[in-house]
Amino acid sequence: MPKYQFFCMPDSNRQKFTYLDMGSNSFLDEKEQLLKEGFEIEDDYILAQTPQEAIEKFQSNFTYAAQEY
Fold first, then answer.
1. For residue 39, which of 30, 50, 52, 47 has the smallest C-alpha distance?
2. Domains of the chain by residue range
3. Res. 65: pLDDT tops 60
4. pTM for the full model?
C-alpha cells in the first residue's frame, strides 16, 4: 500500500498542506524542496490506496484532534 508524507506550512492549522508519495523516485528531492520552501513534516506517514484516501485520512485526523479539545 502506498505511503504518503504530509507537509504543512507553519501556523496554518493544517489548512495549507501538500503531500508526497514516498514510493516516488523523486521523493527525497521533492521533500528537500518543500522543506526549503518552508513546509514542515506533519505527523507520521499515512498508508492509503489513493491520494484522495490519504487526504481524507489526514483531514479526519485533524477533525478528531480538534474535537478532543
1. 30
2. 3-68
3. no
4. 0.84
